[in-house]
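Colleagues,

For the teaching module next term, I've prepared a clean inverse folding example: a structure given as tokens, and then the sequence designed for it. I'd like students to try predicting residues themselves before seeing the answer, so please don't circulate the second half yet.
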């Protein structure tokens, strides 16, 4: 049995502040499980929780000199974990807002950009994205759109349910719409840059 097991948190923190790796290992062993379950309740995602808790202890090791000697290590870890989860939620909110703004931008400029696209360019872009669909989804989508088969006919040919056919086609449309919006957005930026350069 290691002598570190019997040490108080305050003693471990004192040793940790002097760079003692065994003290850090004991704190890690003592609190990793508690922090994992604490964070998991807030995130609901095991992989994300593992990454966050790992980062929590990494920061403890790297920033221990900034921690006051009388600090309650358990309270410090709980507060740090909570703050990290809050930052994670804020980051995801910002990310989602960013993606939403990109989508709105693409939708707003869609008509004007499509006017600048030749039918051939758009046809090539659509076909490329269709080929990038998952194989079964692509097969169903092509039977529906290219061979003009009904849901029932496709279901009978592939020996699947009408419901599955409908779901796969709807999913394909959603994927294509998203990818083509991104394509239009990129093209918008490209045309804008070309226009700016030509005016220099």
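(Answer key — instructors only)
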């Amino acid at each position: 049995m290691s002598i570190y097991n019997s040490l108080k948190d305050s003693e471990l923190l004192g040793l940790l502040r002097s760079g003692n790796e065994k003290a850090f290992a004991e704190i890690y062993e003592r609190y990793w499980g508690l922090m994992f379950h604490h964070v998991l309740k807030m995130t609901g995602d095991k992989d994300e929780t593992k990454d966050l808790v790992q980062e929590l202890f990494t920061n403890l090791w790297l920033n221990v000199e900034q921690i006051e000697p009388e600090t309650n290590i358990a309270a410090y870890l709980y507060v740090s974990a909570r703050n990290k989860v809050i930052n994670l939620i804020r980051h995801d909110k910002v990310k989602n807002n960013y993606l939403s703004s990109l989508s709105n931008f693409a939708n707003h400029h869609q008509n004007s950009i499509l006017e600048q696209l030749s039918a051939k360019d758009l046809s090539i872009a659509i076909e490329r994205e269709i080929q990038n669909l998952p194989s079964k989804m692509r097969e169903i989508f092509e039977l529906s759109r290219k061979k003009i088969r009904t849901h029932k006919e496709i279901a009978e040919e592939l020996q699947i349910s009408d419901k599955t056919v409908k779901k796969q086609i709807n999913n394909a449309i959603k994927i294509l719409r998203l990818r083509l919006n991104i394509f239009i957005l990129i093209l918008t930026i490209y045309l804008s840059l070309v226009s700016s350069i030509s005016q220099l």
